[in-house]
Amino acid sequence: MKRHLLSMNDLDKQDILTILDTAESMHDVQRREVKKLPTLRGRTVVNLFFEDSTRTRSSFEIAGKWLSADVINISGKGSSTSKGESLRDTVRTVAAMGVDGFVIRHSASGAAHQVSQWVDAVVINAGDGLHEHPTQALLDAYSMRQRLGDLEGLRVAIVGDLTHSRVLRSNLICLKTLGAHVTVVAPPTLMPSGIETWAQSEGFDTSYDLDAVLPTADAVMMLRVQRERMSGGFFPTAREYTVGYGLTADRLRSLQKHTVICHPGPMNRGLEITAEAADAAQSLILDQVSAGVAVRMSVLYHLFAGEGSLA
C-alpha cells in the first residue's frame, strides 16, 4: 500500500479488499462498551477541512480517537488562510509542529496531492474539488458488500448530478476494480463533458433513462444535486428533476427485492430521493454512515500502523 491515499488509483484490488476486511474487525469496536484500541497511541492526526462537512469530518475524528491517536480539527474559517495565508504555508506550519498525518478536504481539485508534495506527513484525501473522495468509495463498497456479498459481476447504477460529483469518479474506479458493472444515469445537462470517451476507456455504461436501468440494478446510488456548485439552469424545476431522475415511491417498487439503495449524503429529500426510498428497508444510507467510521479506522490503521496487531 502506498504512503498516502490521494486517489482510488492508489489502491489495487488486494489493497481494497485488505482495507474492507480490516474494516470488518474495526466495525466490531463500534459495538463494544469501551470503544478504544491502542493502535495509534502517540500519533497525531490533523483534520484540515476547508469545506463544510458533517459525516466525513466526524467519522475521521471518531476513527482516529478510537484508535487512540491525538486528533486535531482545523477548519478553513478558523485557520490563518482566512487571513490570507497560502495553503502551502498553512500545512507546512502545522507539519513543523511534528504531526504525523493530515486528513484534508479542499475545494480545489488536486489539493491533497499538492499537500503531499509539501510535507513529510501522511496525507489522506477527504475530498478535493470535483476530483475524488476515495474513502467515500471504500465505505460505499463496504456497505454494499456487507449486504450483497462479493461485488464481482453485480450491476450498480449511479444516478444524479454526475457533473459536480467527486464521489462518482472514486466509485467508478473502486467498483470497476472490484468487478462490478456500473451504469451512470443523469439528464444530459448533468452528464460530465466527454463522458462517452471516459466510459469507453473505463468500461462503464451511460444512460439518460432511469426507468430502463433500475429494474436490473443490484445497487442504486443516488447522488445529491449540488445546487451550491451550480451557476446556471441545469434543469427547469426541482419537480421536473424528481419526475425524471428522482428515486420516487413508484420507482422504489420497480426495484428487485434484493436491490440496495445508497446515498453519500447529505440528502435533498424530495428532490433526488423521496422519504419512502431513503427510509426503506432496502436503504443502506445509515449503514454507510456507520461504515464510514470502520473504513476510516481501517485506512488510518494501514497507513500509520502497518500490519501490526489489531488487539
The sequence of SSEs as H and E is: HEHEHEHEHEHEHEHEHHEHH
The total count of strands amounts to 9
Strand content: 5-15%
- Helix run count: 12
What's the level 1 CATH class of the largest domain?
Answer: Alpha Beta
Largest sheet: 5 strands, parallel
**Radius of gyration in whole Å, from Cα?**
19 Å
The percentage helix is: 25-40%
Q: Can you tell me the CATH architecture of the largest domain?
A: 3-Layer(aba) Sandwich
Secondary-structure content class: alpha/beta
Spatially, the strands of the biggest sheet line up as 7-6-5-8-9
Explain what you see.
The protein is of the alpha/beta class. The protein has two domains: 8-132 and 291-304, Aspartate/ornithine carbamoyltransferase (Rossmann fold, 3-Layer(aba) Sandwich); 134-288, 3-Layer(aba) Sandwich (Rossmann fold), CATH 3.40.50. The chain contains twelve helices and nine strands. It has helices at 13-29, 55-66, 87-95, 111-118, 134-148, 166-177, 195-202, 210-213, 238-245, 249-254, 275-278, 285-304; strands spanning 44-49, 70-75, 101-106, 122-128, 155-159, 181-185, 205-207, 219-222, 260-262. The protein has a five-stranded parallel beta sheet, covered by helices on one side. The protein has a four-stranded parallel beta sheet with strand order 2-1-3-4, with helices on both faces. Strand 6, helix 7 (195-202) and strand 7 (205-207) form a beta-alpha-beta unit. Helix 1 packs across helix 5 and helix 2 (55-66) crosses helix 12. The radius of gyration is 19 Å and the shape is globular. The model has no long low-confidence stretch (mean pLDDT 93).
